[in-house]
Each structure stands twice: as structure tokens, then as C-alpha cells.
From TrEMBL:
The protein's name in its UniProt record: MARVEL domain-containing protein
Source species: Leptidea sinapis
Record field: transmembrane: 21-52, 64-90, 102-122, 134-158
Keyword field contains Protein biosynthesis: no
Domain of life of the native organism: Eukaryota
Keywords (A to Z) from UniProt: Membrane, Transmembrane, Transmembrane helix
Amino acid sequence: MKSKFSSSLEMIPRQKSFACLSLKFGSILSGLIIILYSVFALAQCFVAFGMLPTELDPNDWNIIFAYSVVFVLTFTHAFTLFLTALMLAGVIRDKLKLIRPWIVWTSIQVSVSVIMFIFWSTMSVINHTNDSSLMLFIIEFLSLMVRFYMLMIVASFYKQLEEGFEETERLRGAKDFDQWYSA
């Protein structure tokens, strides 16, 4: 059976269950956790917008950079919130088309987070900065692993649904009773 999804989904390790619970429950729990995180992150972004200076000077690149970073983070979290709500609806209603955008977006986010973590770790080792503690590295690494595990759970549920629908279509095609005894 050839997958209708790109080969990148084939590279994500498959899970059979979420701890001792179903993949559907794990996908719903992952969606709820990410929605809660996105709401808190959006609130933090709005607070950051309020703390930035209101007068923009075109020559002050620090303020322009701060505005652009906060704007990109706000957009990212709002888009994540939207796609996660879409994914939750897809998981609850078993709709593959509603789950797929979340998998692609989260894969991109996890990949960018890994690259940023490696870059940040390397730069702090090269520059010998003492302000970055080991605890910060551990928290960042653990949050990255939790996000990847959530991606694995939802991707495994997606593949489980996809294989179930392929089996259903195969069985629907078996209604042609004339071909059953064509020997």
C-alpha cells in the first residue's frame, strides 16, 4: 500500500498507543495541551507588545527587531492555535484532511526548534557565556522532546485512520459479487 501522504510522514516513528491509552485520547490530550500553551503564549506576546515603545524611530534597529520578533511569535502561536483546533476537530470526527495541516506545521516547528537549539547550544559553548544555565538547556530539551512525542502520537493516529480508511475502501470494492467466483 502506497501512502497518499509524503514520504516525510513515513520517517516519523509509529506508536501503537499513548502510554496505556488509545492514540485518539493521546491526540486529543496533545491538542488540548498545545491549545493551552498557545493561549498563554499569545497572552505573553500581547504583554510584550504593550511593553514595547509606542514611538517608532526608523533608525533604531533594536526596536524594529523587537517588534518583528514579537509579531512573528504572535503570528506563529495564533496559527498554531488555529491548526490545533482544526486538528482536534479532525481527531474527534476522524477526518484525515483536518489532521494533516497540523502534522505538517508541527513537523516544521519541531525541525526549526531542533536547529535553533543546536545553534543556541553551540553559540553558548563557543562564546563561553556564563549566563546560560544547565537547567535552561534541560528544560528546552525536555520541551522539545515532549513536542516531538506529541507529533509522533498524532502522526501515528493519522496513519492508523488512513490505513483503516484504505481497508474500508478495499472492502467496499469487494461488493462486486460476480468476481468472487470467477475461477
